[in-house]
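Appendix B. Extra example for self-study. Work through it before the problem class; the solution is given directly after the inputs so you can check yourself.
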Amino acid sequence: MSRQPYKRRDFLEDVVKAGAAGMLVWPSLTPFIPKDQMTVNQVIAKILAELPGKPLPETVDTLKTGSGDQLVTGIITTMFATVDVIRQAIKTKANFIIAHEPTFYNHPDKLDWVENNGVAKEKKALLEKNQITVWRFHDYWHMMKPDGILQGVLIQTEWLAYNPQSNAVFQIPPQKLGEIIQHLKDKLHIPHLRYIGDPSALCQHIALFPGAHGGEKQVASLVSGQVDLIVVGESPEWETPEYIRDARALGHPVSMIILGHSYSEEPGMGYLVDWLRNKIPAIPVKHIASGEPFSWG
Amino acid sequence: MSRQPYKRRDFLEDVVKAGAAGMLVWPSLTPFIPKDQMTVNQVIAKILAELPGKPLPETVDTLKTGSGDQLVTGIITTMFATVDVIRQAIKTKANFIIAHEPTFYNHPDKLDWVENNGVAKEKKALLEKNQITVWRFHDYWHMMKPDGILQGVLIQTEWLAYNPQSNAVFQIPPQKLGEIIQHLKDKLHIPHLRYIGDPSALCQHIALFPGAHGGEKQVASLVSGQVDLIVVGESPEWETPEYIRDARALGHPVSMIILGHSYSEEPGMGYLVDWLRNKIPAIPVKHIASGEPFSWG
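Solution. C-alpha cells for the complete assembly:
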C-alpha cells in the first residue's frame, strides 16, 4: 500500500467522477481508509483515548495546518515544527508533525498575532504546498498519567528510579550541584546552560519543571517543599531567578538550573515515539529534535 | 543636619508628647521638613513633574515598603532591590531605593503571589527594620521623553550619535554581528550572552528593546521595519527566538542578541543618577548595579 497522502477531498473527487460516469453513489462522510492506514483524526483519537480525564473545552492542542481527514504517511514528533523540521519531514515523506510547542510563535498560534507576518505566511505556505498537517500536543501530553514530558525527561536523566511516581518534586541521592549540572548536560545533550548556586553544594530534593511553567508555580514548589534545587526549562528572569538570588542571600541553600526550554522538554517528545508505536503499529513514527536556536558567546 | 531617617510617625509622636506636656498643638498633616531635605513623596513628585503625559490610573510604580513621608537620607538606583543591594544601601546610609523591577518576584509585587513565601517576608522585614523605602520606577521611566532606560543604554553603547531621537529602531554604520556582540559585551559589562545569527553577517538596522517587552512587540518591529538585528533583554523562548530561527531558515538575514534582562536595562538606572542630580541637588544619589544572578556553565 502506497504511503503517499490520500486526502478526503481526493476521495470525494473520485466519487464525484464515478457519479458523473453514471455510477451514482452518495459520497460517504467517512473517507475510504486503506486497511493499514489511519487519518490524522484517527491518530489523535487513539492518543486522546488514553486521557485520564475528559478532553478540555479549550486547548491549544489544535491542528495548525492541514486536515484531520488526511491519511497519515508518517509521523514526526518534535518540540518545535521549525522550517528545518518541516523540511526533514518532507524528506522522510512523513505528512503529520506532532509538535509540543507553537508553530507560529505565539501560544494560541494566532496567525494575526502580528499583522503582515510574512514569515508565518511563508511557513504556512510551505506546510500547505507539501500537504503537511501539524497538530500541537501540549496540554494533553502534560495531562496524561504520568505527564508524558516529565516521564520522558525522567527516563533520559535516569532519575525515574528515584521517582517512580513521576512527581515534580522528588529526592535523589545527595550530589554536588556541579555534578548534577554535568549529568544533565550529558544526558540531555545540552552544550550550555545557566545556573544559580555553588557547584560544590550538595543537592538532593529536586523540583523538576521542564518547559515554561511560570514563576508562580516554580516558586510555590520552592516555598512548600524542602527543595534545594529547582531545574526548569525557562523562567521570566524577574521571577524565580530573583527569588533564588534573594533566598541564597538570606542564607537558604537553594540552587537553580535553567536548561533551556527546548532541551528541557525534548525527551518527552522522544518518549512519545515509544508511547505511540504499539498504539499505531502500522504508521512510521520518528522523533526529530528541534534543538534550540541560540549560540552562546 | 543629620541624614538619619526621620519619619512622619516619629514627628507625630513628638507632637503628641508635646501635647501631653501641656503644649497643645494640632498635628499638621505635613511633617516638618528640614530645609535641605525632602520626603520620598517630594522626590517622586519632582520626578513625575517631568512626565510628558498624565500619571497613569494604574501602575506598578508604587511604594513596595516604607512611607512617602519618610525624609530621604540618600537614594540608591538599581534594577533589582535585591537583598544584597539593600545591604549596600544600609551601609551607605541611604534609605530610599528606586528600583526598575519588582521587589517581590512578581510584576505587581503581590506579597501573596505565592502563599507563605518566607523569603518575601524576610526581605520585607529587613527593609522595615532598616526603615528603607522602595519605590518602583518602571512605567514612568519608560514614559519619559526620551524613555529613560533606552536613553541610558544608547549613551552607554555610544549609539546615541546614530539615534539622537532615541527611537527603538535605528541605523548604525554596517558592522559584523560578531563585532556588535563584542561591543555590547564591553560597553555593558556583560560576561556572557546568547545570540542567533552568523557572526560574520553585516548588520545596520537595529531594533533595540532592553528588558522584557514580550514577543509581540519584538516581532512586530521585525515585521514592520527593515530590521536586520534585534537586541533584547529577554524573550519567551517560543516567541521571538523561534520567529528568528524560521525567518533565517526561509532566507531572511535577521539576527538576534539576548543581553539578559538586568544587564540590558541597568544603564537606564545608572543614567537616572545624572538625570536626578540637578533636580534634587541636596540629596546624595548613587547607582548600584544589581547584575544578574546567573552563572554560565
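Self-check: The two ends of chain A are 50 Å apart (CA to CA). If your reasoning did not lead you there, revisit section 3.
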